[in-house]
Specification:
The protein is α/β, with parallel strands linked by helices and 440 residues long. The chain is built from ten helices and 21 strands. The chain has two domains: 1-332, Rossmann fold; 336-439, 2-Layer Sandwich (GMP Synthetase, Chain A, domain 3), CATH 3.30.300.30. It has helices at residues 19-37, 41-50, 71-76, 110-126, 145-157, 169-179, 188-200, 222-232, 345-353, 390-408; strands at residues 90-95, 105-109, 134-137, 160-162, 183-186, 212-216, 235-242, 247-253, 260-262, 267-272, 286-292, 303-309, 311-312, 324-325, 330-331, 336-338, 341-343, 358-367, 374-381, 413-417, 432-434. A nine-stranded mixed beta sheet has the order 4-3-5-6-7-8-9-14-13, sandwiched between helices. The structure holds 5'-O-[hydroxy(phenylacetyl)phosphoryl]adenosine. 5'-O-[hydroxy(phenylacetyl)phosphoryl]adenosine binds next to helix 5, strand 7, strand 8 and strand 12.
């Protein structure tokens, strides 16, 4: 266990508001946001369809009368069809992390940007950040919300930022050695990658001055936390967010490290059965659905995250009164996030369909043998093309490999299998086996 201890600190009084006050604030803000989006053509149409009038919200439970918003809705309203303010009021635009599929854009006013910085500051302070610290940000800076979100959060706390950005691992290690930052901020897999790289260079990653780290942006497990903590000799905190809702800062762990506090004065979270869309009980896994209460540029009503997690409403020992969410256990749709890139099985299918000699029978296996995700695509060769001539099979293999890379941007291991060897299903076909969902 690392020697460093994180003291229990709360950045913003709003995090520890009495529950009754918080609920009253939420109701007030919910009414406001419903009135604001009623002018956005997309919501105007959805409200008209469902018979929602601005006075539909009388209690917090009335949120269940409102329509859902999905990623597909954002795609269909690309680029900025869901804006609730004139374009001149925008201060920033970001996008979804996916380099594949159609990009979705999100926008911020200056007020949104300030809110966002404050929300990131909250979980950073909850997990150790102090004004005297230097925080090394190894998230990508760009359309992805990770780099900029955390950057401004650190500045908001008054700490120093080292905007190393992602990639160039040798340089990351040099900076970690030469500047001795107190905290590292990146995806959990990249943290392990840095540690692994250092060790391979004969550098002990436990000897960096790092005290703690904030990790998010992808699924990870308790086992991974233990590994990161021991390999880097730090305390590792989890934080969660998604660009559509604001970016990082939707929720994050406190010093107690028992679930991520949802920033409920800015978001209403619901946990629903992804099939019936009915609420599930506390502590039961369901799909998280968020309504943004304060966002000005692009407020979203009941945004379906597809992330599967559970909610714990019990007050936390840290003094915050907000509900805590568990780790994300998986996704209700079939989108895979491979090394931070969104991948849909349908894209693999698309690639296979473009290569002669394959069948649409395939199986995607995802694993994380070391620190990085690996993907293997097993492809059935058609009877006609099946041959015991190595060179023919190699040619087919290479063609599939190239196609998958061109369409998805991801390098996958391709394995050709004999005709009729991939199990057929009478119902939905099993396309993906994700070995990463191990424990915790
Ligand atoms: O990943 C925002 C973010 C950046 C959060 C940095 C935390 C730190 P997107 O690129 O839109 O936004 O991807 C959002 O990533 O729906 C989850 O599936 C996944 N995700 C984000 N944080 C976590 C986490 C950012 N702590 C998608 N645990 C979300 C598990 C996470 N999954």
């Amino acid at each position: 266990m690392p020697e460093f201890r994180v003291e229990n600190r709360i950045h913003d009084k709003a995090e520890a508001m009495p529950r009754s006050e918080l609920n009253a604030l939420q109701l007030h803000r919910l009414k406001e946001v419903v009135a604001r989006v009623a002018e956005v053509p997309f919501y105007k149409a959805a409200f008209a369809r469902d018979g929602i009038t601005p006075d539909a919200i009388r209690t917090l439970d009335d949120i269940r009368r409102l329509p859902f918003t999905t990623k597909e809705d954002l795609r269909q309203n690309y680029p900025l069809g869901l804006l609730a303010v004139p374009r001149e009021k925008l201060a920033r635009i970001h996008g979804s992390s996916g380099t594949t599929g159609k990009l979705t854009l999100v926008a911020y006013t200056a007020e949104d940007r300030a809110t966002w910085a404050n929300l990131c500051a909250r979980f950073l302070v909850g997990g150790g950040l102090q004004p005297s610290h230097l925080a090394h940000v190894a998230f990508g800076y760009g359309l992805f919300t990770g780099g900029f979100g955390l950057h401004y959060g650190i500045e908001r706390v008054g700490a120093a930022v080292l905007p190393a950005a992602s990639g160039n691992t040798a340089r990351q290690i040099m900076l970690l050695q030469d500047l001795a930052p107190d905290a590292i901020i990146c995806t959990p897999s990249y943290a392990l990658n840095i540690a692994d790289y250092a060790r391979r260079q004969g550098i002990d990653p436990r000897a960096f001055a790092l005290k703690y780290g904030h990790f998010g942006g992808e699924m990870w497990t308790e086992d991974m936390r233990t590994q990161i903590e021991s390999e880097l000799n730090i305390i590792a905190f989890n934080n969660y967010g998604l660009s559509e809702v604001i970016g990082p800062g939707v929720s994050g762990e406190c010093a107690v490290q028992n679930g991520m506090h949802v920033q409920e004065d800015h978001f209403i979270v619901e946990c629903l059965d992804p099939v019936t869309m009915e609420p599930v009980d506390d502590y039961t896994y369901g799909e998280l659905v968020f309504t943004t209460l304060t966002k000005q540029a692009m407020p979203l009503i009941r945004y379906r995250t597809r992330d599967i997690a559970a909610l714990d409403p019990c007050p936390c020992a840290c003094g915050r009164t907000t509900v805590r969410m568990s780790r994300v256990k998986g996704r209700s749709d079939d989108m895979l996030i491979i090394r931070g890139v969104n991948l849909f099985p349908s894209q693999i299918e698309e690639a296979l369909l473009q290569v002669e000699g394959t069948t649409p029978h395939y199986l995607i296996e995802v694993s994380r043998p070391g620190t990085l995700d690996e993907i293997t695509v097993k492809v059935e060769v058609s009877q006609e093309s099946f041959s015991d001539k190595m060179s023919d099979m190699q040619r087919l293999h290479d063609a599939i490999d190239r196609r998958i890379q061109a369409i998805t941007g991801i390098h996958a291991r391709v394995e050709l299998v004999a005709p009729q060897t991939i199990e057929r299903s009478a119902g939905k076909a099993l396309r993906v086996i994700d070995h990463r969902k191990l424990t915790g």
